[in-house]
User: Fold these one by one.
Assistant:
Number 1:
Amino acid sequence: MTDLRKFQGELNRLPFILELPEGLRKRVSELFVQVASGKLYVKGETLYNRGSQDKSTGALLMTGSVEIDRGKGDPVICHAPELFGEMMLLDENNRR
């Protein structure tokens, strides 16, 4: 497991955190550190499958990049730091 504390400063670079009032940024990044778990993935490993049900998780990409195939043509490339996979929370069946 990676040490999430060392990434806490990087969390403050996430676009949605940058939009928060300054006093709230540290509190939000601290919350992420408290509820998150770290995992390293190898190139080519699948994190999520489209259409699968999930246990309400998203991912914080802290290093590297990830390719997201949404089945609509060209894949989207996300570069760290980035939040992704959270949109399934808006699906009433919790499907990706």
Number 2:
Amino acid sequence: MSGAIEQTPKQREIWAVLQQRAEFGFADLAEVGVCSETATEYLRGWVELGLIEQHRAQGTRRLYRPVALRAETALPGERDATPEGNMWRAMRRNRRFTVTDVACWANAGGVQVSVGQARAYCRQLAAAGILRLAKRRPRKGAEHVYVLADDLGPLAPHMRRVRAIFDPNGRSYRHADGAREA
């Protein structure tokens, strides 16, 4: 299941039951008829897809919870459909893609993503080392193929512009919140 989008009917049935619970573990999967090896595969896959996270440990038992139940720690808009969120989820699920792929996959949930938006986002993530080019020079007319090099988790990374002052003496930056331009 790792990195896969499609789930079997059994996986969907189990997921529908588990996402209604505040937390669950291997024992809960066994209750719904899943052997331990398959349970490990399902849990790893759901963690990789960003659907669940390890919530806490109880002795040697790990307990997980659906990511959607983190409302108390979520920032406003984190779970809303956004262009960056849709593109990031598509990249995490597919791992290898072109800009056009990302734009197509991200047009969901009432969000429209253009090829230009996807290209800009891919370039930003590549510049930060989160994506890398799979092929340096594609054949003429072909698009670059990107690979997800650093999966940062379920929340989409965002480009931020920060005003700062560089001190060449100490080779450091200081945040310039509220500073006026000279």
Number 3:
Amino acid sequence: MKEAQDKTAQAEKTLKKYVWGSAGIGLFPIPFVDLVAVTALQLKLIHALAALYEVKFSEHRSRALLSALLGSGTSIVHAPKLAGAFKLLPVSAPLAMLSCSGLNAATTYAVGKVFILHFATGGTLLDFDPKAMQEYFFEQFSAQAVSAEAADSAAPTSYAGIKP
């Protein structure tokens, strides 16, 4: 039991590191390059979690599972692309970079939580069912997005109602 708790704590620590990394990638100013980078980072996350849980890793299989998992939510997958396109416009670039950063972090968090749950319950990459994990993925993504939105709304406002 203690070993399982230690693995879970280590998995959460690993996930946090990758979530911060994906948020940083969202700040990259060139659109679509960040999508390639965050996908690579998510594959590295799956690799790190597989190593922690002593699951045989396959990059090809992981890429297919990641695509299947993210492909289920077209709005989630395409939102960073659309936000990234706004990086090209000087007026909207700062807001687009922050949006991409938040979307990348929330998506990476949800991907990590899905694979932590799967690996912790004895699953492997061969028996991973993306359709069965979609609901959990969306719960985790929504929870992360809502917590970010709540933190944003909790920010102090000036007398004019404009957030600093």
Number 4:
Amino acid sequence: FVLQPDMYIYIAVAQAQGEITDPANWKIVGIYSSDSLRIIPDQVNIEPGKFIENVNIHVDYDKLPPQPFEN
């Protein structure tokens, strides 16, 4: 898919549980990280006219990443 050129600092797969318009119903189930053993998100810089490959997100429902909006 196409994204605007920019620095993306948190790339994730999110899952809604319930009404999708309520932010409280969303949870992060996977994040992009260049190291599959880390749970720290990596950033991706998309430059104008460039195509980025291998931005893979692994989802493991038994080991979810930290939720960015938890108190």
